[in-house]
Each structure stands twice: as structure tokens, then as C-alpha cells.
Design goal:
Elements (H helix, E strand, L loop, with lengths): L3 H12 L10 E9 L10 E6 L4 E6 L5 E7 L2 E8 L6 E7 L4 E3 L2 E3 L23 E6 H5 L6 H5 L5 E5 L5 E5 L7 E5 L2 E2 L18 E8 L13 E7 L7 E11 L2 E12 L2 E12 L25 E13 L5 E14 L16 E20 L2 E19 L7 E22 L2 E22 L2 E2 L3 E19 L4 E17 L10 E15 L4 E12 L3 H5 L15 E13 L3 E13 L2 E5 L9 E5 L2 E16 L2 E16 L2 E3 L7 E10 L4 E11 L2 E3 L5 E3 L3 E11 L9 E9 L7 E3 L2 E2 L4 E9 L1
Parallel strand pairs: 1-7, 1-8, 12-15
Antiparallel strand pairs: 1-4, 2-3, 2-5, 5-6, 9-14, 10-11, 12-13, 14-15, 16-17, 16-45, 17-18, 18-19, 19-20, 20-21, 21-22, 22-23, 23-24, 24-25, 24-26, 26-27, 27-28, 28-29, 29-30, 30-31, 31-34, 32-33, 34-35, 35-36, 35-37, 37-38, 38-41, 39-40, 41-42, 42-45, 43-44
Length: about 750
């Protein structure tokens, strides 16, 4: 809490720093409409400023899309418009002292709506009963040489941690492993063998936005979504014929990379291509890091290097009848080291001396939306995912002599179909989600650095859900939602376990959901939701040994969770905020233990707890007190507790406090400074003796300054040069026992658009 105090004080100071506005004498008014449909757009934030007089003000459009600025002085003004689902727009206005200027503006819709999986009910503008949050392209652009993990850290109540396997995993509201569904352009990118995806090797350069659904998951996301659903959207272009962007960056300690993106439009066809490459050497240790074992260097963290190359293409065709079809392909080729657990004495227990010499993920995705008639629409996705990785286990920290290797190959095909039917003033969604996957596992032991006989096993699984969800008005301001789905999992191939009485694993159940939204005014909204959802064990949890680190447990039972949340939202012109209280009660929670005795002593095994409970409060605010200053902050408190054999216990690596604060300020028209702060505290982690110890709190400051290179330049549409410092104070963040995070890092780079 000592580190949290300055964070809280800085939040309070910035939020209360508002400027008083001076009334003036002229008028600017007009209407905002959709450039494609011609329909008015309501609730759009419009900011007006005059840098000569330090004047700024903001309004929101009404139900007719109209806006008005009154009592203005004459002078040169800048009008800035931002709206979810539309390209930002900026207008320069020379206003006379007694003039009434009528300025009607058409906004260009963003074409990446095709890849949205959020239940937005865009046809009838029905609000969601659960928590929906977004990160847009301008925020992602400020993550330099970054990955999806760096972007995900911006999300409220998000905890991003790298585990002892070297995987970087996203947890929302202290959800457990394998409970969050993650999509790219509407296709599930989780690898079903483990139902996780390492977002630390997926590049952020190809992202155009992120949409997150928390709380009670919609039926459209399928099963295994207790922890929420995240959709990563690709970048696209709408307002130009073509655009090329080149970005080159470097850092100290050693990190470098570059990306090239080309986007274009031709009549009703748009496309995006991207190529990127990054390479990082071992990162620097922060102040206060304790690494008593398996750490040869006092300066850099051993075996934390990585390399990443990626390729992406997407093409979208829009038809005259309103139908849209998109095809995309992405391929990632990476390698990385895994930092050894430096709290473990290798003479007493086994330590992961791992490297991933090869990590490859390739996906082909088709998605689309077809209007069947004026009240019916069909949208969906089909995809094929090929994921492969090699794990090399070495005998010691010198990483020279092999102990054994493991080769994983996952082949997955999936389908998602959602039928949207307008019924009166409500909407019925019928959703089908299904995937089938095969996992091939090859283990080769070594002796005297020579390969021995290998083992080859094949596993298979099918996951499916069929559900319906009806959202309808009970009155003009009160909206209700009811949902029901049938969800199941079938292990179709259990590898060597077929000869041990585990021929298959079948489980299915019903899921329920309900919610209410009450619009008190155009700005103020209340919402609540409740639901019951399952999470089925993965093949790795049931049968995986992790190169001798784990003892399989084919008797694991599926998890059942009861989720609820109550929230309020205020949507203003210069200030927006939300407050959400949530409770998750889980039965048969899957956790792990370290075996203390017998032939498997020192190894871990996954087990079912009696259950667990997570109770929390999430707050979020966004404000623009003046046009030059933008503040986005969140703070979440979570109380977590597990229950095992009737006794309460801690839950592993679940923070009690998570805070985020992002402040952006335009010093001039061309110079911007950005501050990003993240606080985590109250994290307990399990020892080899199955006891729990408290990790130190962490307060991480990142800073960035950028300069616009080509403002009003006819040859270039944009560009900047930037300088960034991550972990300015070189503070210690412990991800798990023996796994300190990176210390201070300096980055610099340049971006050019033409």
C-alpha cells in the first residue's frame, strides 16, 4: 500500500485539475451523419478549441445528430470529432465575431466492424447488460516495438503475467487459467490443447483495436468463457485510396525491429498487408531483484531473449445488398528462451532449463455478414489454425547439453454462426460454436547428448455450444436479456491413456444468463447481469506431463461458475466513468499442488478444489478537461479465496489491487507527452511446500514523448519520431517466485506514413 499512495494522489490531483471556461459571442452548429447511410449519429463527442486564447469546450450530438457551440469569440478554431465505429475528423474554422457558422459533417464508418464479435445490436442500438470496453488504434500506436501483451496491460482489471513456462497470459478480474476466450477477426486463437495463447509473441503492429466483454459472457462466444472474451481486430483503411506506414525502432538493452503496413481501398474492396520483425536480447534486471540460483549474470536475466517475424494479409469485399465477406491470413514465426526459476535449488528440485527454438502459428480466417431480409442477418466465421512448438529441456543453466525435447503440433478447425432476428423492438441471437482439434506430442529423451527412442502420441477433442439470447425492451428505458445454451466437450483421442481405462472424456451442461439495463438519462445508465457457465478441462490438464514437471490427472472434473455484476455508467462529453461490482462463485475450481512424498515428490499435479470465490469492484474514468489533455484511469479491488477439503486457502498469483493511469498531453500541435502507470499489489504465490507467500507490490512508470514530423505536408500523410522509457524507476515486479520482470529500458524510433 505504500507504493499505492503516490499513485492514488497523482490520480486525484490530475482528475481535479479542470479549467473554467469563458462565455463568448458567435455560434457554430451543424449535424453529424453517417456517410454511407445518411442517418444522423447521436452521442458523438465534439471538442472545440482556440489555442490563441487557450479556449476549449465540448458537446455531444443529440438524437438528431445536431450540435451547437454558442457565445464564441471570433478567431481560428479547431473542431475535433471522435465516435466509436467511425474515423476521427478534424476541421479548421476561421470564425468572425458575430457569425453563425453552419457546419454539417459526414463521418466515415470504420470497416473493421465485420470482425467484431461483441453483441452490439447495431441495427437497433440496444445497450449491453455486461461490461464492454475498447482500446482503439491511436492507443495501440503508442505501444512501440510491442506485443499484444503490452496492449492488454492497458485494460482495466487486467493482469498480464509471464509464467514459469515462458508464456505470457491475460487474466481479467482474476479469472483462472484457460477461462478467457481470445479471438482475432472473430476466430478463436486459443490453442485447445491448453486453451491458452501466449500473447507475448503476437505483435501489436497489425492491430486496429481490441474489444473486451467481461462479466456474464454472451452465447455468441461459445464455451470456456468464464473469464471473459477478447477480440483483437486487424487494421484497415477507409478514407484514402492507399496508405503505407513504415516503423523502425531500437532500444537499450538490446532490442530492435521494424514493420511495414500497406492498406488500400478500391471501390467496395479494401485490403491490409503487414510484415514485421523484432529481436530482443536478455533483459536487464531491476533494482532489488533476488536470484540466488540459476542466474550467472548480475546484470541481465539469463535466457530471456526472443525473436519474432510475422506476416499478415486481409481482404474485405462489401456488396451492394449490404453483405460483407473478409478473408485474412496471419503467420508468426518466433523463438524464445524461458527464464529459469531462480528461487529453486537445482540440487534439490527440478528446474525448467527450457528454450523454444521454434514457435509457429498460422491461421486462415473467413468471416462475413449477410442480410437475409430487413429483419434478419447472418454473420459468422470459419478458420483453420496450425500451431507448432518445440521445447528443449537442458540439463543445466549453461544450455548446452540436452535432457529431452518435446515437439507439439496442433491442427484446429472452427466454425461460428450467429443468426440475428429482429422481433418487435428486440433482437434474438441464435449462435452455434464448434471446433475440432488434434494434438500430436513427440518426446525424445537424451543421454550423453544422444537421442534415445521417442514417444509419439495423438490426442483429439471436440468443443461445441448451441445457444439463444433474446434482448428486448420492458419499457422505453428498461432493457432485458435472457440467454440459454447447451455446451459440451468430448475427448476423442486420449493417446497412451486409452489402455489405462480412459477411452474418452465426455461432459456437457446447460448455461443460463439474464440481465437488465436501465437508462436513467442519455448520459447515465444502470445495468446488472447473472449467469451460469462451465469450463471443461483441457487435454494438457488431463494428460500432459510437461517434460516431467507434472503428473497427469485424467479424473479432473469440469468447472462450474456462477457470475454476477452490477454496474453504473456515466457518458458525458468531457468526462465518462463507470463503477462495477462483480462476484464469481466457482465450484470444482482447477488448481495445482506440489506432491510432497513418494516417487513423484517434487512434481506438480492439477487438482479440483471444492471451489473459489472472487469478489471485486472495478472503476474506470476517462476525461478530457481541455483538448490538449486526455486522462484514462482505472482501479480494481478483488478479494479472492479458494476452498479445499473444507478449509479456506489463498489463490495463486491473483492480485488484490490493480490500477492503471494513462495521461496524454499535447505540449504543442506537434509535440506530445504520454505517461503510463500500472500498479499491482496483494499477490500471493504458492511455494514448493504448498504454502503461500506475499509478493512485493509493483508500481511501474512508463514515459513517452513524440514529435509530429509531417504536419500539413503534402508528400506524407503522417509520421513521428519518438523516445520512450519503460519502467522509469527501475522498480521490481515479481511475476512468480524466482521470476523477476524486466528493469528499465530505453526505446527510440521513427514512423512514416505516405
Amino acid at each position: 500500500m505504500k507504493k499505492f499512495l503516490p499513485f492514488l494522489l497523482s490520480c486525484c490531483f490530475i482528475i481535479t485539475a479542470f479549467s473554467s471556461l469563458q462565455a463568448q459571442t458567435a455560434t457554430i452548429k451543424g449535424q453529424l451523419t453517417d456517410d454511407k447511410s445518411g442517418e444522423p449519429i447521436q452521442g458523438v463527442n465534439i471538442y472545440l478549441s482556440n489555442q490563441e486564447t487557450d479556449f476549449s469546450s465540448g458537446v455531444a450530438t443529440n438524437q438528431e445528430g445536431q450540435y451547437t457551440f454558442r457565445e464564441l469569440a471570433g478567431g481560428n478554431y479547431r473542431l475535433k470529432i471522435t465516435a466509436v465505429g467511425y474515423q476521427p475528423s478534424t476541421k479548421q474554422i476561421a470564425l468572425k465575431a458575430t457569425e453563425t457558422r453552419v457546419l454539417d459533417i459526414k463521418l466515415q464508418p470504420i470497416k473493421y466492424q465485420l470482425s467484431e464479435i461483441v453483441v452490439s445490436h447495431t441495427e437497433q442500438d440496444v445497450p449491453s447488460t455486461t461490461t464492454i470496453q475498447r482500446i482503439e488504434a491511436d492507443e495501440i500506436n503508442n505501444i512501440d516495438l510491442g506485443t499484444v501483451a503490452d496492449v492488454a496491460r492497458l485494460l482495466p482489471a487486467a493482469h498480464v503475467a509471464t509464467n514459469s513456462r515462458g508464456q505470457t497470459i491475460l487474466y481479467l478480474r482474476n479469472s483462472a487459467d484457460r477461462q478467457t476466450a481470445q479471438f482475432f477477426n472473430g476466430a478463436l486463437i486459443n490453442v485447445p490443447w491448453d486453451n491458452r495463447v501466449d500473447i507475448g509473441f503476437l505483435p501489436s503492429s497489425m492491430l486496429g483495436g481490441i474489444t473486451v466483454s467481461k462479466g456474464v459472457p454472451s452465447v455468441v462466444y461459445g464455451t470456456n468463457t468464464i473469464g471473459g472474451a477478447v477480440n483483437f481486430r486487424a487494421r484497415s483503411l477507409t478514407d484514402q485510396k492507399s496508405q503505407t506506414e513504415l516503423k523502425i525502432s531500437g532500444s537499450s538493452p538490446g532490442l530492435g525491429g521494424a514493420s511495414v503496413i500497406h492498406m488500400g481501398t478500391n471501390n467496395n474492396f479494401s485490403y491490409t498487408t503487414e510484415v514485421g520483425y523484432t529481436k530482443q536480447y536478455d533483459y536487464k534486471l531491476p533494482d532489488g531483484a533476488t536470484t540466488p540460483y540459476s542466474q550467472p549474470s548480475n546484470e541481465t536475466r539469463v535466457n530471456t531473449d526472443r525473436r519474432n517475424a510475422n506476416l499478415f494479409f486481409e481482404g474485405t469485399q462489401q456488396f451492394e445488398n449490404g453483405a460483407r465477406l473478409s478473408a485474412s491470413l496471419f503467420h508468426v514465426d518466433a523463438e524464445q528462451g524461458v527464464a529459469p526459476e531462480s528461487n529453486l535449488d537445482p540440487s534439490q528440485t527440478s528446474v525448467r532449463y527450457w528454450r523454444y527454438p521454434t514457435i509457429r502459428q498460422s491461421m486462415v480466417i473467413l468471416n462475413g455478414r449477410v442480410p437475409l431480409d430487413s429483419d434478419t442477418r447472418l454473420r459468422g466465421s470459419a478458420w483453420f489454425n496450425r500451431y507448432s512448438q518445440d521445447i528443449y529441456q537442458y540439463q543445466s543453466v549453461d544450455y548446452e547439453n540436452l535432457d529431452q525435447t518435446q515437439a507439439d503440433l496442433d491442427l484446429t478447425g472452427g466454425l461460428r454462426f450467429i443468426l440475428e432476428q429482429d422481433i418487435g423492438d428486440g433482437q434474438l441471437d441464435i449462435a452455434l460454436n464448434t471446433l475440432t482439434t488434434q494434438h500430436e506430442l513427440t518426446i525424445v529423451p537424451y543421454q550423453n547428448n544422444s537421442a534415445q527412442a521417442d514417444s509419439n502420441d495423438t490426442y483429439g477433442q471436440q468443443i461445441y455450444s448451441l445457444g439463444a439470447e433474446y434482448t428486448f425492451p420492458l419499457s422505453q428505458d428498461l432493457i432485458a436479456m435472457l440467454g440459454l445454451s447447451y455446451e459440451g466437450s468430448a475427448i476423442t483421442n486420449t493417446g497412451p491413456w486409452e489402455n489405462q481405462g480412459y477411452e474418452n472424456y465426455l461432459s456437457s451442461t446447460l448455461s443460463l444468463s439474464a440481465g437488465l439495463t436501465y437508462n436513467i438519462s442519455e448520459q447515465f445508465r444502470l445495468r446488472s447481469s447473472f449467469g451460469r457457465k462451465p469450463r471443461f478441462p483441457t487435454m494438457r490438464e488431463l494428460y500432459g506431463g510437461a517434460l516431467g514437471k507434472f503428473v497427469p490427472n485424467p479424473n479432473l472434473k469440469p468447472v462450474t461458475a456462477y457470475l454476477s455484476e452490477v454496474g453504473m455508467e456515466w457518458l458525458g462529453t468531457t468526462f465518462s466513468s463507470s463503477l462495477t461490482a462483480f462476484l464469481t462463485r466457482t465450484y470444482d475450481t482447477i488448481d495445482k499442488r506440489t506432491i510432497q512424498q513418494g516417487p513423484n515428490a517434487g512434481k506438480e499435479q492439477r487438482i479440483n478444489l471444492d471451489g473459489s470465490r472472487i469478489l471485486g469492484v472495478e472503476t474506470k474514468l476517462t476525461t478530457t478537461p481541455v483538448e490538449q489533455l486526455s486522462i484514462d484511469g482505472s482501479f480494481t479491488y478483488m478479494y479472492t479465496r479458494g476452498f479445499f477439503q473444507g478449509d479456506p486457502r489463498k489463490l495463486d498469483e491473483k492480485p488484490a489491487w490493480v490500477g492503471k493511469l494513462n495521461v496524454s498531453y499535447d505540449l504543442t500541435n506537434r509535440l506530445n507527452i504520454l505517461s503510463q502507470t500500472e500498479y499491482t499489489g496483494g499477490i500471493y504465490t504458492r511455494t514448493e511446500q504448498n504454502n503461500f507467500v506475499l509478493l512485493p507490490d509493483a508500481l511501474i512508470f512508463d514515459g513517452r514523448i513524440s514529435y509530429d514530423l509531417f504536419q500539413n505536408n503534402q508528400s506524407f500523410s503522417g509520421g513521428e519520431i519518438f523516445f520512450r522509457v519503460n519502467n522509469v524507476t527501475n522498480d521490481l515486479r515479481v511475476l512468480q517466485l524466482g521470476l523477476p520482470g524486466p528493469g528499465r529500458k530505453f526505446l527510440a524510433g521513427v514512423k512514416v506514413q505516405f
